[in-house]
Design brief:
seven-stranded mixed barrel; two-stranded antiparallel ribbon; 303 residues; 6 helices; alpha+beta; single chain
Length: 303
């Protein structure tokens, strides 16, 4: 793994030197824009629209647009001066329960390993958090970006999840078209809960795969091999008009439900339309008519 950051975890007067590694990787298949005429990949050029020249990296600085077309400029050392000595320290501010943090706050996960002679302090922090069931809420600065972070134990490793600041979370009230009054049909609610119960299972991340990426890789391999590709059109989805029928069909598709005593789950068979004598003659229908059942004679009264 590539080290993305080096520093220390600090809680109280304890200092734990650590190295940081990214815990996740983006497996998205990247594509490049190609000129259809000649097949060459397109290049992106840093060009100044006023001077009409290509700009080199050493001629570039950062700026903030405070009004349309007006910027204040910053040199690299000015921005670096904003970072104090804490920029290389993960400072734990509080210890909380993980269940108190809503998942909307989480951003990216990192692994932390002990650095230099920090093994003992690393094990001490990990064991203390595991035994108490607590996680640390800390502040960290990575690549000039200040973030909150959650420090927790993952298996036998201390991990860190960067989390958003509260003012970076948009209020739910800004979401349009949310229902003002909850009006739920009780029968539909019961069916929905039953469907959730039928689909409930322990979380097994290994069973979830990226189907799109697998199909795209397969398509790439076929194209590299020069094979002709024909993709079958997707089947149109059935338009289910009735919500209750959709819930019932979903439950039956997951797991059959035993019927209540005295009821039947068999669906009535559709009767075929009767043919007229003219239609039967037209198609050459020579099928014999169904035999007529004879009525039983009534029993004779006893003398």
């Amino acid at each position: 793994m590539h080290t993305v950051w080096k520093g220390a975890i600090s809680f109280g007067l304890v200092h734990v030197p650590v190295k940081m590694f990214s815990a996740t990787e983006d497996k998205d298949i990247s594509m490049r824009y190609i000129h259809k005429v000649c097949g060459s990949p397109l290049a992106y050029v840093r060009k100044c629209p006023s001077c009409d020249v290509e700009v080199q990296w050493e001629e570039i600085t950062k700026g903030y647009e405070y009004e349309k077309g007006k910027f204040v400029l910053f040199e690299k050392d000015e921005l670096e001066a904003l970072n104090d000595s804490s920029s290389k320290t993960i400072t734990i501010l509080d210890f909380v329960d993980l269940t108190e943090i809503d998942p909307i706050y989480f951003q990216k996960t990192y692994y932390l390993s002990p650095d230099q002679a920090g093994g003992n302090a690393y094990q001490l922090l990990m064991t203390a958090m595991r035994d108490t069931g607590k996680i640390g809420i800390a502040k960290i600065s990575i690549r000039s970006k200040s973030s909150l972070a959650a420090i927790r134990v993952l298996e036998d490793c201390i991990s860190m999840e960067t989390i958003f600041y509260p003012d970076e979370i948009r209020p739910v009230a800004q979401v349009p078209n949310l229902p003002e009054v909850m009006n739920v049909n009780e029968k539909e609610l019961t069916m929905a809960k039953l469907l959730i119960d039928q689909l409930s299972t322990p979380f097994e991340p290994g069973k979830y795969t990226d189907d799109y990426r697998a199909k795209l890789l397969d398509l790439i391999n076929h194209k590299v091999a020069g094979e002709e590709i024909k993709i079958a059109p997707a089947k149109p989805e059935a338009n289910v008009m009735d919500l209750m029928a959709a819930l019932q069909a979903s439950i039956e598709a997951v797991k059959p439900i035993p019927a209540d005593p005295g009821t039947t789950t068999a669906k009535p068979k559709k009767r075929a339309p009767k043919k007229t004598s003219e239609q039967a003659t037209a198609v050459g229908d020579t099928e014999a008519p169904a035999p007529v059942k004879k009525r039983r004679a009534a029993p004779k009264p006893k003398a």
